[in-house]
UniProtKB/TrEMBL annotation:
<keyword id="KW-1133">Transmembrane helix</keyword>
<dbReference type="Pfam" id="PF02790">
    <property type="entry name" value="COX2_TM"/>
</dbReference>
<feature type="transmembrane region" description="Helical">
    <location>
        <begin position="134"/>
        <end position="156"/>
    </location>
</feature>
<dbReference type="InterPro" id="IPR045187">
    <property type="entry name" value="CcO_II"/>
</dbReference>
<dbReference type="InterPro" id="IPR036257">
    <property type="entry name" value="Cyt_c_oxidase_su2_TM_sf"/>
</dbReference>
<keyword id="KW-0679">Respiratory chain</keyword>
<dbReference type="GO" id="GO:0005886">
    <property type="term" value="C:plasma membrane"/>
</dbReference>
<dbReference type="InterPro" id="IPR008972">
    <property type="entry name" value="Cupredoxin"/>
</dbReference>
<dbReference type="InterPro" id="IPR002429">
    <property type="entry name" value="CcO_II-like_C"/>
</dbReference>
<keyword id="KW-0472">Membrane</keyword>
<feature type="transmembrane region" description="Helical">
    <location>
        <begin position="89"/>
        <end position="113"/>
    </location>
</feature>
<feature type="transmembrane region" description="Helical">
    <location>
        <begin position="47"/>
        <end position="69"/>
    </location>
</feature>
<dbReference type="Pfam" id="PF00116">
    <property type="entry name" value="COX2"/>
</dbReference>
<feature type="domain" description="Cytochrome oxidase subunit II transmembrane region profile">
    <location>
        <begin position="67"/>
        <end position="162"/>
    </location>
</feature>
<dbReference type="GO" id="GO:0042773">
    <property type="term" value="P:ATP synthesis coupled electron transport"/>
</dbReference>
<comment type="similarity">
    <text>Belongs to the cytochrome c oxidase subunit 2 family.</text>
</comment>
<dbReference type="GO" id="GO:0005507">
    <property type="term" value="F:copper ion binding"/>
</dbReference>
Length: 367
């Protein structure tokens, strides 16, 4: 333990002793004064302390908001068009619940002070009132229903079909990282099967590249142009992107805080989500004044001991930049089968292909 820890423990013990001594002393005082007067005095002090607690509490709430607001993601605004709606709903909910919070807390503490014990005043016995019960049940119920309906409409929108021309990206979580698949020129994701997943053979999605009699699989040629990447996802500013989300092991969650969206990644059950990025990564660096800004994919579901490190990155670029990037990507088929790669004939590409082939042989021998 550090010196600071010892000091904190010592301070806590001292505070406890002081409180204990004060309590003991006030007990002797009350015996001397007589219990009746002492209780009345205590009531008065308690009443003022409750009032003071309320005032300090309200100031603290205001101060914390003022102090910490700039450290939240709100000042930079939503990075997706759809997320603006989310921010709006969040603000309405916060405003209404905040107002209710202030009113109820004020009444709680103010009444405790105002209606403390007083000479000649008797407590009013108020056991039940149907009208009051009805009002405080129906009013919140109506309001919550309105909030839920708005939320559901938004939910149905972002989980329904994406607009025409949307970019489609498959994103799959695993312990502990993210991988992405693009459908290639044919715009069709090739069929996958979990039993042919093999990281060693460059097939992390389990794309069905070959016929497999044992598993009764037929090769799916639409797989041949699919592009697979890990950790970083490229998407286009102003172009809706539809994520097809899955998981290879446990439940993860694609958390997109800057875009104000998130969606569970459930093994065996694909989920979808679409949104339209508003700013490129470059623009966000300027907006936030942070030259190291990156859009983060944070796993929002506790998924194991490496959960904290399950971070992916989204690069929002222009359509031209995206096309250039995409043109440089090699379909995953050629990574899994380097001998089928037409560019492998070139001497430069040949050496890398040979290394991959050698790696594959090593894996085969290890088996
Ligand atoms: Cu996870």
């Amino acid at each position: 333990m550090t010196t600071t820890t010892y000091l904190i423990i010592a301070a806590a013990v001292l505070v406890f002793i002081v409180i204990f001594q004060i309590a003991k002393a006030s007990e002797y005082v009350s015996v001397l004064k007589g219990e009746e007067t002492s209780r009345k005095q205590n009531n008065r002090i308690n009443g003022f302390m409750l009032l003071g607690f309320m005032i300090v509490g309200f100031i603290a709430v205001y101060y914390c908001n003022k102090l910490l607001y700039k450290t939240t993601l709100f000042p930079q605004g939503s990075a997706s068009v759809e997320g603006e709606k989310f921010d709006e709903m969040f603000m309405i909910t916060t405003a209404v619940t905040g107002l209710v919070f202030v009113i109820t807390q004020f009444l709680l503490f103010f009444f405790a002070w105002k209606y403390q014990e007083k000479e000649g005043r008797k407590a009013f016995y108020f056991p039940h009132n149907n009208k009051l019960e009805l009002v405080w049940t129906v009013v919140p119920a109506i309001f919550l229903t309105v909030l839920v309906v708005f939320g559901l409409r938004f939910w149905f929108r972002i989980t329904s079909d994406a607009p025409k021309g949307a970019l489609e990206v498959e994103i799959v979580g695993k312990q502990f990282g993210w991988m992405m698949r693009y459908p290639g020129k044919d715009k069709i994701f090739g069929k996958t099967y979990f039993r042919v997943i093999s990281d060693a053979n460059s097939n992390p999605f389990g794309q069905i590249f070959e016929d497999n009699e044992e598993l009764k699989l037929k090769a799916d040629p639409t797989n041949f142009d699919d592009v697979v990447t890990t950790q970083t996802m490229y998407i286009v500013k102003g172009r809706p992107v539809k994520l097809i989300i899955g998981s290879r092991d446990v439940i993860h969650d694609v958390g997109l805080n800057h875009f104000r969206l998130k969606m569970d990644a459930v093994p065996g059950i694909p989920t979808t989500l679409w949104f339209t990025p508003k700013y490129t990564t470059k623009e966000m660096k300027e907006r936030t004044g942070n030259p190291n800004f990156v859009y983060e994919i944070a796993c929002d579901q506790m998924c194991g001991n490496g959960h904290y490190s399950m971070k992916g990155i989204i690069e929002v670029v222009t359509q031209e930049e995206f096309d250039i990037w995409m043109a440089k990507q090699k379909p995953n088929y050629y990574l899994a089968f380097p001998d089928k790669d037409p560019s492998a004939i070139k001497p430069a590409a040949d050496s890398t292909a040979a290394v991959t082939a050698a790696d594959k042989n090593a894996v085969a021998i290890n088996k």
